[in-house]
């Protein structure tokens, strides 16, 4: 029997001093109607909680741990660098090294600025787009998440083209009135929005593979239509690749979909489990940032050697030949296994896999946008999550999140996971 006694006690304590007991809301497990587990340590594909339970981890800290937890080479590089001091607030050669790796890996990036989170990367990209175009409006897609930036925290109204109303108290309406919300995977909606707002649109921001309403890949022509309309109207195309950067292939998914972004936001994997973000693009755009340009952006710990060392080590390891095809193959095997069991049980489901990310939607599907995603049976997901947890499998504690596979998930882990689906109650 799986016991969660110590986790329960620690959660009780944390709620007294931390809002909701957590430092990021989904971690509270409310979306699956239970209490969070508290983690003691992790290694490779495994998490170990404070009650001594071991889990095969498919959340991977929400994506960064593509090499598995506590990778010896990543930690080794961090230790080596850390011993020489952790932050100087003055340039180091390491920053140039990581920037060069990013520039070499992503064709549309000539210059890149490092920040400390994905949220900051998006903030930077949006300010840059507005500053360079002298326009205010941003097109955002319903169900895409771009960090907790004020003007990106907007809810869908009904209707296709809705001007944003804030989805969080504390965000002034004036901040979000320039955010235009559109459904994902709807090229026509984008055409209409451009017809309506034409020369007012500073930028379109999109997750090229949506990962924050569960995994929803882009359909044919969706990204190409956005690219075409941005070019035609002088708007900046921002790809939020905080999840997809170095997740699907070494570099960006822009190569896969043959679409180039003007600005690309990165985070998660490029920090190898340390806080990081990055915003990059053409030199002419990036040079508009201070100190070369007028658009202000800064950060005390930006590009600090510890995070950068973890990022460099991670990217170097990701260059290993055959790594991405192996990740994809493992994910495919896993998804087929899960599908088979759910099929035998007559449980309605749709699995959206791409590369090493996937979501099991409790929904007959297809799941192509937010509207179809939210038709999922979230209670069925909650039961699935809890059942799997008791079988030693950790899935993200919400239906609307991506599952991730790491290079440390071996065949035995995949087999064990499918067995767990069979055993889960
Ligand atoms: C995680 C995420 C962010 C925010 O990154 P933080 O490091 O959590 O601030 C932004 N965009 C996307 C697509 C993300 O998945």
Question: How would you explain this protein's 3D organization?
Answer:
It is a single chain. By secondary structure, the protein is an alpha/beta fold. The protein folds into two domains: 169 residues, Aspartate Aminotransferase, domain 1 (Alpha-Beta Complex); 247 residues, Aspartate Aminotransferase, domain 2 (3-Layer(aba) Sandwich), CATH 3.40.640.10. The protein is 36% helix and 16% strand. The strands form four sheets. The chain has an eight-stranded mixed β-sheet, sandwiched between helices. It has a four-stranded mixed β-sheet with strand order 1-2-3-16. A hairpin with a 2-residue loop joins strand 1 and strand 2. Helix 2 packs antiparallel against helix 10, helix 6 runs parallel beside helix 7 and helix 11 runs parallel beside helix 14. It is globular and about 60 Å long. The two termini are 13 Å apart. About 1% of the residues have low confidence. The chain binds pyridoxal-5'-phosphate. The site of pyridoxal-5'-phosphate has 15 residues, from helix 4.
Radius of gyration: 21 Å
Q: What topology, given as strand order, has the largest sheet? A: 4-13-12-11-10-5-9-7
CATH topology of the largest domain: Aspartate Aminotransferase, domain 2
Describe the main β-sheet briefly: 8 strands, mixed
CATH architecture descriptor name of the largest domain:
3-Layer(aba) Sandwich
Name of the CATH homologous superfamily of the largest domain: Type I PLP-dependent aspartate aminotransferase-like (Major domain)
* CATH class identity of the largest domain: Alpha Beta
Q: Give the helix proportion (percent range).
A: 25-40%
What proportion of the residues form beta strands (DSSP E)?
15-25%
Query: Unreliable segments (pLDDT under 50, ≥5 consecutive)?
Result: 156-161
- The 3D shape can be described as globular
Secondary structure tally: strands: 17
Q: Termini, distance in Å?
A: 13 Å
Round the mean pLDDT to the nearest integer and report it: 95
Q: Cofactors and ligands present?
A: pyridoxal-5'-phosphate
């Amino acid at each position: 029997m799986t016991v969660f006694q110590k986790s329960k006690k620690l959660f009780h304590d944390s709620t007294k001093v931390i809002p909701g007991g957590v430092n990021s809301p989904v971690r509270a497990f409310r979306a699956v109607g239970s209490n969070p587990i508290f983690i003691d340590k992790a290694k490779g594909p495994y998490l170990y909680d404070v009650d001594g339970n071991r889990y095969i981890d498919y959340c991977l800290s929400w994506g960064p741990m593509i090499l598995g937890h506590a990778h010896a080479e990543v930690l080794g590089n961090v230790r080596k660098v850390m011993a020489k001091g952790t932050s100087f607030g003055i340039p180091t050669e390491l920053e140039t090294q990581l920037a060069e790796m990013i520039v070499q890996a992503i064709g549309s990036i000539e210059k890149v600025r490092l920040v400390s989170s994905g949220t900051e990367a998006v903030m930077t990209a949006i300010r840059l787009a507005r500053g360079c175009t002298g326009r205010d409006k941003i097109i955002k897609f319903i169900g895409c998440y771009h960090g907790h930036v004020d003007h990106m925290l907007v809810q869908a109204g009904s209707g296709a083209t809705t001007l944003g109303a804030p989805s969080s108290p504390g965000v002034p309406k004036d901040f979000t009135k320039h955010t235009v919300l559109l459904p994902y995977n709807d090229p026509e909606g984008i055409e209409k929005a451009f017809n309506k707002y034409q020369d007012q649109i500073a930028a379109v921001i999109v997750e090229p593979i949506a990962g924050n309403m569960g995994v929803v890949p882009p359909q044919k022509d969706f990204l190409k239509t956005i690219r075409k309309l941005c070019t035609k109207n002088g708007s900046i195309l921002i790809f939020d690749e905080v999840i997809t950067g170095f997740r699907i292939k070494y570099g960006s998914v822009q190569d896969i979909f043959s679409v180039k972004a003007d600005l690309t936001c990165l985070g998660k994997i490029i920090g190898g489990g340390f806080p990081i973000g990055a915003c990059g693009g053409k030199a002419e755009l990036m040079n508009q940032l201070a100190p070369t340009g007028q658009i202000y952006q800064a950060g005390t710990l930006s590009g600090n050697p510890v995070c950068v060392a973890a990022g460099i080590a991670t990217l170097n390891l990701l260059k290993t030949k055959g790594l991405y095809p192996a990740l994809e193959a493992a994910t495919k095997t896993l998804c087929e296994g899960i599908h088979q069991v759910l099929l035998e049980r007559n449980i309605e489901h749709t699995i959206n896999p791409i590369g090493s990310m996937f979501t099991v939607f409790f929904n007959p599907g297809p799941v192509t946008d937010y509207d179809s995603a939210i038709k999922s049976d979230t209670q069925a997901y909650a039961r699935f999550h809890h059942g799997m947890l008791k079988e030693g499998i950790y899935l993200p504690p919400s239906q609307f999140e991506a599952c991730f596979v790491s290079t440390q998930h071996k065949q035995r882990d995949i087999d064990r996971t499918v067995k767990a689906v069979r055993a889960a109650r």
